[in-house]
Amino acid sequence: MLQDSQGLDVSTDSPEAIAAINRYTDQALAYGKDAVAIFQGIEADPTCAIANAHAAAFYLSHESAESRRQAVPYLNAAKTYQASTTEREKLYISAVVAWETGRVDQAIAHLEAIASTYPRDLVAVQMAQYHYFYLGNKESLLQIAQNVLSANPENHYLHGMIAFGLEQCHHLSEAEEAGRRATQMNRNDPWAHHAVAHVMETQGRLEEGIAWMESLSQTWENCNSMLYTHNWWHIALYYLEQENFPKVLELYDSHIWGQAWKESPKDQIGAIQILLRLELRGVDIGKRWEELVPYLTARIHEHSLPFQDLHYVYALARASQTELVNKMLLSMQAHAKNVKSYVQKTWAEVVVPAAQGIVAYAKQEWENAIAYLRPTLLRLHEIGGSHAQRDLFEQVYLDAWLRAEQNREALYLLEKRFTSRRYVPSIQRGLTVKSHKPGFSIEIMRQAV
User: Fold this and answer.
1) Do 277 and 240 contact (CB within 8 A), yes or no?
2) DSSP assignment of 340-376
3) Strands (DSSP E) along 282-416, which ranges?
């Protein structure tokens, strides 16, 4: 038995397997391109159970039906060889098994047990944060990282993980401090960059945000496509708030979709988000919806994450793929009846009606969009995603009100957004409410308190 770079016992006698696990650990925490190094570890020691579990987790994180199939043989190998492993390794394997079977609640329980007893295992902590993120549990996302800080005070990756948790819990100044601290400790920490970007976007510090992210962007060349495209997505949001729409389109074509792994659900979501945000500003995006369709047809019956499904069905609707949209809505309704009990209410009461609402919006059925979306807004955190990502659905709802000329309700929503995000220029400009009907205009101005 040997130890890895985190000082954790690993059930293998192969130094090559340990080297591969160490490389995987660093790359997983860095969202790096070379996480595939774990497969070299399996070649060196096919009986290394935790290496096989890491490989399965690598595939499961892609959140597609194909990647789940790819995970299965590695998960089977991990289960085959787990009898002679340590308690930590058994817990980790159990967490990955639970993930693959859709029992994320059980996966989290195993990961919390690891964090409590083996606080140096930051891959387990990161995986728990991932699951909490897509369950909308921001408090636990922060807590599990803070709980292991005393065991890892020197680890910049952990400071970046804490920074993101702090931002999601609205502790913005503390989040920025933690993100900057992580970046000072190691400039090549893209997740820490990302946490600070969230803070600056929320506070409307557009020029600072652009300068911060662009000054660090060269370090993202080592990122996997998910975080590479997502960090450029954040830069695009700053330019969007500045109404520099040509620059946003340029970033979409050159980085967000241009450099995407186009079969990746995570990369697809970023592209869909940008296109919808541009259209909300009245920007003509050309044939870009249609360009996404070939990559979305495989997503119709997957239902890996509700957050992803809402984006897929909207993009298909905007591309006028009526038959595919109808198939997906029916498939989502069926899935809501059969999904695991701990998320069944979220699927039935939030995901399905939200999907119907955004499809209605895509079809310019404003009243239907309002009716479907209204009861979901206060529970949208249950679908996962960040504040910045979920904010898009509130923008859609607001735009539906404006297009339906329900300006009293629109004013309420605008004032609510102004209160929570008062420094964002587009929110301030939004306090001038204008109907989309030609010749009709209502000026509703409120002085900031």
Assistant:
1) yes
2) -HHHHHHIIIIIHHHHHHHHHHHTT-HHHHHHHHGGG
3) none
Which residue type occupies 260? Answer: A
Would you say 99 and 1 are in contact if contact means Cβ atoms under 8 Å apart?
no
pLDDT at 77: 98
Nearest to 138 by CA among 171, 174, 180: 171
Bridge partners (DSSP) listed for residue 440: none
Model-wide pTM > 0.70:
yes
Q: How far apart are CA 449 and CA 446, in angstroms?
A: 9
pLDDT, residue 331, reads 98
Residue 37 exposed, middle or buried by CB count within 10 Å (0-12, 13-18, 19+): buried
User: Considering all CA atoms of the chain, what is the largest pairwise distance in Å, rounded to the nearest integer?
Assistant: 77
- How far does the chain reach from its first CA to its final CA, in angstroms? 63
Nearest to 95 by CA among 115, 120, 81: 115
What is each CA distance from 136 to 197, 346, 349, 381, in whole angstroms?
Answer: 20, 11, 15, 5
Residue numbers in the chain where pLDDT is lower than 50: 422-424, 427-449
**Helix (H), strand (E) at residue 391:** helix 387-403
Strand, coil or helix: what is 296?
helix
Tell me the C-alpha distance between 423 and 314, whole Å: 29
The helix/strand/coil state of 223 is strand
SS3 content of the chain, % helix, strand, coil (to 5): 75, 0, 25
3-state secondary structure of 3: strand
